[in-house]
Each structure stands twice: as structure tokens, then as C-alpha cells.
Amino acid sequence: MSFNDNTRIDSGRVRDSRGRGGRGGKIAAGGGGILVLLIASLLGINPALLEGLGLGGDTVQEQPADGSGTRAVDECTTGADADARTDCRIVATTQSLDAFWVPYLERYGETLAEPAVEIFADSVSTRCGAASSAVGPFYCPADETAYFDTGFFGELSSRFGSDGGALAEEYVVAHEYGHHVQNHLGTLRNSQEGGTGPRSGAVRVELQADCFAGLWAAHASQTRNAEGETFMEPFTETDLRSALSAAAAVGDDRIQQAATGRVSPEAWTHGSSAQRQAWFLAGYRTGDINRCDTLGAADLDRPAS
């Protein structure tokens, strides 16, 4: 999906802690925490769910100054920048998500506070614990922040088989934002029910976040910035295939097959490639949050049409 070239975007919407001399103290003290998070990531577990296991801290470290007074993300000012750069795409996608979710939930009497979003490199400290880039994108409910290392998107393509298209990256941002919506609605806590497996609460929550990403995609070309300019152009079938390639790339079955040479459904935490694609499409084709009830779905393989 392409952004409209002249649409203005606000780089201040996203924190950028890259190149700030590290966020060191907690990382150095939390090496065991990083290891647990890394293992969890490889197993498909949302690092945010490890809160309460002694990995988290009481405060979030503020961004230290680097002496320059500038951030790389401050160069992100237009839709053309979002089309050209991944960090700018995160900024613009976040603003499009804000413009969709806040008014959409108001229809249901819900007032959504926008999540914080941070772009980091190498490592980051959060209220859910210290994390390294190996964890990949994640949402921490304790500080209501979605965290992204832009290097992940290259890995998504080179290691996991996504086609590398723009909507593949935007899908990932929308999925993590979906966890914030779940946190607000109270469904995120269901991820801790039922352990692991194809019908577990963890899988149901992740598939709902995929559905929420599709829901945003259904409305994305109508989202507007503060000046009333649309953020995005209507996307094409090629764009849709990019999103589906990303959903498939992070399916538990594909990751397990690549890592161990076999598939173990009893260990699933995010759902299969086919399930993740199906629930993204459920949100996209219906544009209706009521069709994203993965928690009550009898058949997670076939969303109700």
C-alpha cells in the first residue's frame, strides 16, 4: 500500500531511541531476561506476556540525549518518505491506525488512548523487561507501547519468506497496534489462558490481532491526517498478497518447520500460517470488528463469513 506522496506526517508521534548510546543499565543487568525473551520469541510467544516473571522494571528509561538534538525519524515528513523508508513507514502507519481506531471505537462507546510507539536498535528497556532485537516487534501492555526494530523487516523477508512489500511491513505495525486495542478492550489477558496449542488463548488473541490488522486495512485508504489529507492510496491485489505473505511467514507451523524440521501444534502460540491469513482476510473483507471474535470462534480455521 502506498502513501499519498504529499501527505504530511508527524515524526513526533513515534519515539526514536536509535543511536542514543544504548539504553544500557537494564540490559546489562537483565541478561537472563533477554535470553528468556529470545527463547520466547523463537517459540512465538509475545514478550509482553512475560510481565510478572521478574523480568520487568518499575520505570521506563527516558531517551538519553546524543548531543545532536536530532533523531533519524525527524526526516520523516511526507508520504513519499513513508514509501521510501521503513522507519517513516512505521510513523505514517501508526498515524493512519490512530485515525482509524479512535473514531471507529467511539461508535461502540469506547475512548481509546493512542499507544506509544518506539523504534529502537539492538536493545530496549520496557516495563515488560529488557529486550534485544532478536525478539522482533512486540507490544508491552505495562507501558502501552509497541516496539519496533526496523531490522526485523529485512529478516521477515530474508529468513521467513515474506515478499518484502510495503503492506507486509504495515501489517506487522497494525498487528502490534491491535494488541493495544485488545489491551483496552480487555481481551489481551485471554492470552494467558489455556497454555499453548492450536485452540489456546494465546493463539486466539494473536489471531484476533491479525483480524484487527485486516480491519484497519479495509478502511486505511479513508484515514486522514489533521489537515484532512488521506494517508493512503487504495491498495492493489499485489499489496494484499504482501500482507498475506507476512501473515504466512510468521505462522507457528512455518517457523517450527524452518527451525526444527517438524511441526508441533501443541506448542503453538500464534496460530498456523493459514489461520493467520484467514483472520486477516476476515477483518479485511468484512470491515467489521464483530467478525473478529476469535475468542468465541468454534473453528479457528474458518472464520465466519
Show the helix and strand layout:
Blueprint: E1 15-16, H1 24-29, H2 31-42, H3 79-84, H4 86-106, E2 116-119, E3 123-126, E4 129-132, E5 138-140, E6 145-148, H5 151-158, H6 166-185, H7 201-219, H8 237-249, H9 252-260, H10 273-286
Parallel strand pairs: 1-2, 2-6
Antiparallel strand pairs: 3-4, 5-6
Helix pairs in contact: 4-6, 6-7, 6-8, 7-10, 8-10
What's the gist of this structure?
The protein has 305 residues and is an alpha/beta fold. It contains ten helices and six strands; from the N terminus they run βααααβββββαααααα. Helix 7 packs parallel to helix 10 (273-286) and helix 8 (237-249) runs antiparallel to helix 10 (273-286).
Would you mind describing this structure in some detail?
The chain is an alpha/beta fold. The protein has one domain. Helix content is about 40%, strand content about 5%. It has ten helices and six strands. The strands form two sheets. It has a four-stranded mixed beta sheet with strand order 1-2-6-5, with helices on one face. It has a two-stranded antiparallel sheet with strand order 3-4. Strand 3 and strand 4 form a beta hairpin. Helix 4 runs parallel beside helix 6, helix 7 runs parallel beside helix 10 and helix 8 runs antiparallel to helix 10. The chain is globular, with a radius of gyration of 18 Å. The two termini are about 25 Å apart. About 15% of the residues have low confidence. It is a single-pass membrane protein. Its main location: membrane. InterPro entries: Uncharacterised_pept_Zn_put (IPR007343). It holds the Pfam family Zn_peptidase. It is found in: Membrane.
